[in-house]
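dumping these here so i dont lose them again. two proteins, back to back, each one seq then structure tokens. dont judge the mess
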Amino acid sequence: MSEIDVLVIEDDKVDYTTLKKLFEKMKNFSIKSHHVTKISDGLKLAQDENFDAIFLDLNLPDAKGFEGVLKLTHLIYKVPVIILSVTFDREIYRKALILGCQEYLEKGSVTPEILDRTLTASVSRKNHEQNILKSESERTSFSNSVIHELRTPLNGIIGFSELLLDETEFDRESVRRILECGNHMVALVDDLLDLAKFETGDIRVENKPTNLHSLISDCCNTVSAKYHEDSSSLFIIDIDKNVPEKPCIDPFRNRQILLNFLSNAQKFNLTGKIKVQVTQKEHMIYFHIQDNGHGICQEISEKIFEPFFQGKAPVKPGAQKGTGLGLSVNKLLVEIMGGAIGVESKVGSGSTFWYSIPGSPTILLVDDESDIRQFIKHLLEDSRYRVLEANDGIPALEIFKNEKPDLVVSDINMPKMNGIELSEEILKIDKSAKIIITSGIDVYKVPDKNSGVAKFFGKPLDYEFANYVKEILST
């Protein structure tokens, strides 16, 4: 007789006692039951214990009907859930099965034999799913090991090929092809490594203030050097004035995406320059890479982000063959960063690949006291805002003109230009600017009629201020 642990979420003591007696009469299992009366307590217990099954009553103090099933959704794929109910509700039964619940039992009809059959299926299902997870984990680990082992000989092939190119004129074309194949295999291995990281959840996004023009220029230079051409003759960079100079984004992941797009654009571009355009709408930053190639038909456009899919458009002479994984990796990276990706193209008119990512809202913090700036900065950076600083209204005005922050938080008393004067100058530049004024004096004595200021806050500031910042930036 197998011993298993089950969790019973049931607020009726009589019903739980009845169920426990049925457990004692079962032939196939020895049941160790854990009992709670609220679904919230059940969720806490399920985080610490490894249960073989969960019995869920549909009429609980903190969850009625299908609401209880929904609250267990994240557990259903780990632990079989068996629903208990006084009456049979066909609609709840249908929805529960769709979500993955194991069984729906009417309390008055439950017997030890029914429980034996139900729990046998539950335990079998759980063991099967755990074996699948273990197998997938072992397969991913094996793939990673093989990929890392492949890199060593590949680097040797490329290194010796480069030496041969430098030292001899003999059969240079053959050596060039060795080098080309090696580079292709390295690119394939890198893309496979990224796909393996997606499977295991090891992809990390680390946002930080990033000089956008420098990032794009570096990517253009890298692609140009590959084809021994001058970057200025290949690319046009157009960054809209509304885009912050240093948005808070992940420079490594965006470099990876841009290099994939720019390399493809260079391979297929027929005439003229490739245009890299960056715009911002609300808090989303949009990147557009436009080439003048053959274009892509609608049928291919719909499949182009699928792994290993490659179109049949001719590439430039000498262009390295792609791996068929670059665009699918781009798609996964963009989605992880919370953005979108796509392509706009017409046969004979070139293609524009684009993607969007969230740019953290920028806040300009103005106060002549550095300690106060640091405290407010701490409050705001907990919410992942990009914070710019100024110690007076005059430098703050210059920062506002260059960076166009989403919000200005300014002290009212400063030596050269106070907060009210700064607000007036900012609103002359942008009537829709969002401004918060802080002050150590009684804020209710500060006139705010027709000032254009969103709100006044008295010091010391607290999390009410931080919550208001979230609110005003979400509108």
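---- next one ----
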Amino acid sequence: MEIRERLLHLQASPARVVQCPRGVSPLAVCPRMQQSADLLCARFARTIALGRSCYSTLGGTTIGAEEGRIVRGMFRFPEALERSAPVERWLNAQTGELGALARAWFAFIRQCGSDVRELMHDGHPTACVGDTAFVYVGVFKAHVNVGFFHGDALPDPTGLLQGTGKHMRHVKLIPGRAVDGSSIEALITAAYRDICARLKAEP
């Protein structure tokens, strides 16, 4: 099914945010979502042409530019590998203290379990349990983020997590600023176990 056709036939269901009568597309009752569909189609066309993966959210449903990328609740990346050359190149290209932080934390992430896989997603090294993402590392101008795809579900007794999105949260690491490393390790481990539990509970 073409991307636009997918967008134009989104139906309401308990797993989605937009509530409409069954059989009625959210786009039919919301002109702004109709405009969003047009914009998303253009974006998907560009990313497909470039051979890149692309995710956007419309009406609570995650839509991907590649076949099999419509998912509910979890980001799935079947192309994730045990070791990814693009991830390795990205990590090695990061310089200074920011690069050292990124490499150290991604190394810890890699050893969470034998089922950890990795890929580049949205320009950041992303770790998965099998094909399901649980954490990423990002380097920015003056800080490093360790980001969690289901951070809203993680215990955070020390209050490290930042972000106000529906699910995503991150820890901001700034060179020279003290941080409780054991708490970050606990968050990463909890994120790994959380995704393992979600996968085990799937029908």
